[in-house]
Amino acid sequence: MPRRRGASTAPRVLGLGGGAGSGKTTLAEGLVEALSAQVLHLDDFNFQDGARGVFVTNAESGTRHLDLNHPASIDVGRLLAELDRLGQDGGVRTVIVEGHLALALPGLRARLDSSLFVDLPIDLCIVRKLVRKVGQGADAAVVARNYRQSGRPGHLLFVAPSRRHADIVLDGLLEPQELVQAALQQLAALGLISVTPPPG
């Protein structure tokens, strides 16, 4: 259930989770525009020191890298400190924390006013991700290998189960604008925003 804010002047914090390729980032961009919100991308809070986090080793090359599909690879302390900073700033009314593991982090969930999950079958998620990565110049074989080694296990272990923590579950098959409007309508129904999306 969404957290009631009472008279608090702290920014409203929305968590946005779902599989990689489900449409979370596109939805976050639409909500930022509609709510004049600030977005924090969970990818920006991965551990970077080469020591903390969970690591996987490539069976072919032997290279070791951070497992971006494991909650323990996220510096939750730094993320919460950034939320505190935004709360003290006073100029931000809504913060959206976006990432495929957003609802899999208990420390973050405790700070959320509401949580959203974009639901899309895992096979469609990987197709979308593959198309996007290849379009950005990635090697399709590398993307597929990373998916088998880390992406799929992480989705099944952490991302998919985090759906149960969502106040709002959205259909990832919706067109982007429909997805944004569905989110706004449901947030308004929960009394979390006063914005009414335009018809059509």
TrEMBL record:
One of its GO terms (molecular function) is uridine kinase activity. It comes from Deinococcus metalli. Keywords: Kinase, Transferase. The keyword Kinase applies. The keyword Kinase applies. This is Uridine kinase. Its EC number is 2.7.1.48. Gene3D superfamilies: P-loop containing nucleotide triphosphate hydrolases (3.40.50.300). It comes from the Bacteria. It is an enzyme of class 2 (transferase). InterPro entries: P-loop_NTPase. The lineage of its organism: Bacteria, Thermotogati, Deinococcota, Deinococci, Deinococcales. PANTHER family: URIDINE KINASE.
